[in-house]
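Appendix B.2, paired examples.
Example (i):
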Amino acid sequence: MGDLARLRDHLRRLDRVLVAFSGGADSALLAWVAHDTLGPDRAAAVTAVSPSLAGSELADCAALAAEWGLVWTEVLTDEMHQAAYQRNDADRCFWCKDALMDAVAPLVAPAGEHAGATVLLGVNLDDLGDHRPGQGAAAQRGAVFPLVEAGFTKDDVRRWSRELGLRTWDKPAAACLASRVPYGSPVTVAVLSRVERAEAALHGLGFAALRVRHYDDTARLEVPIAHLDRVLLLRDEVVGAVRRAGYRYVTLDLEGLRSGNLNAALGETGRADPEGGRSTSER
């Protein structure tokens, strides 16, 4: 079981930290606890900005930082300029996190704004069994995972977030937009933009947890199983919204939302996902 006191102790030993802050439940809890434990002089948060981050997620990062008084900054990452990332092989996430570490390196360098700080990622115990090459890339560059050290599972993250009054406690998982693209299909700015427009339109129809999987001119929609009937009830609005985003065909996955289901192509085995299906990782 995740131990908040143990997490605070670990942060104190690190002394100065820079939290990679995506606005999701994991990184939000870590950023809040780091700020609360170490104060603004020794704890800061940074958000990596690129076409793979939905604009709504960036806006929420800014809002959370303002609400909680975080020392927060944005950095631009260049993974979209890397052929290895665009190619979208099984190691795509490695290059994403490598680009993140490149972008934050000047901040924690001796002459940087957060000199000497350790970069923290909001990885929890449940993430360790997934296909997440990005974790390895970050660890190789010196990043650490305090939630793992303190024994936090995803349920622990949500439980402690709720007890601490953080509004992110029940925020649906929202992996990067590139996670909607099957391995082997190139990741481009145009593709990510289309996915973002489609998901934003569906959020506007009241679907908080969803994925729009990109298959050229076909969109495969995933929502929690309990919400499948609502998609059919709003069929005309849903189809219209997704087509306006640039898709010709709109399909509904009857297996429901699986946060990591595209990893099935790698032979990964899924596990239960409270959002309504099965999950394996960042996809």
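Example (ii):
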Amino acid sequence: MTVARSLSEPSVYGHSVAGMRVLVTGAVGFIGSHIVEELVAAGHEVVALDVLLPAVHSDAGAARMRLPPGVDLIEADVRNEGTVRVALAGVDAVCHQAAMVGLGVDMGDAPLYAGCNDLGTAVVLSAMADAGVRRLVLASSMVVYGEGRYDCRKHGAVSPGPREQEDLAEGRFEPLCPHCRAVLTPGMVRENAPFDPRNVYAATKAAQEFLASAWARAVGGKVAALRYHNVYGPRMPLDTPYAGVAAIFRSALSMGRAPAVFEDGGQRRDFVHVRDVAAANVAALAWTADAPVGGARAFNVGSGTPRTVGELAAGLAVAVGGPEPVVTGQFRLGDVRHVTASSDRLRSELDWRPRVGFADGLREFAAVSVG
């Protein structure tokens, strides 16, 4: 349920609220639907657009019911330029969430990912240029970094290459210094870290940022690219090939199975609750009002507290009351070992703070019905 605020009331994140008309793509998705609720609660008018992909929305009727009363849904693909142009009528800003997510199944998914994510973004940007809409919040991802930040005792900050299959097969999971092969110490990655996408999805997210940056320079637009870390919470797709690790563990527990944890469970991630991500989007929209013209700025969106995949599995098992996780030692080539966010820029420049603690978020997620 959403709670209406007056247009003059400041948001809980410290930004003054001015009523805008905002187009949200991917509006009934996991993250998009929470953003729509947050925007409506802040007094904004929302135009919702979503294609309702069957791979993501097995029950389209239930997905449509996620939208608050008074928010109409345009059911269309973002690659349909004519429909996007209609949706942009009278719009002040765009919150672009529509994308294929997850690592996919295999390289056969590459055309679908590139089509949905990159061609779709190009169509939206082209239509925005013609419509005179100059404010964009883009859903990006921490996957653009590849591996996170690492330090070697001898060589300082280093960038490890992809882990070798032989090392992984022998249970040597930690990245090694490319100079001396010492085990590296992971740290917090910041927005100035270079891109190093390790899979097709990551490459498409990097391309989305480049497209948005080029658009901003060409038309005098303003872009906030939000690099989401591991988002979890209510409405997360649980039973698709594209599900995230939290959803995979939750699905296993719902069937009475122990979560299967790859490698040794020590992979470090930053798990951030979906409502905190939605609030970051609303804060970013407010930021674009006074942002420099013709510029794009990236913001990591994470809790700021690293957790391991093993901790996530164990916490969910306790919350659900299911079997303890099983550490399998299995691995996937291309998976990154550690990537955790510094969200200092988001906190200082957008006055944002995560509000949902890890334990509380897991208890809520454990209560989500499955099936």
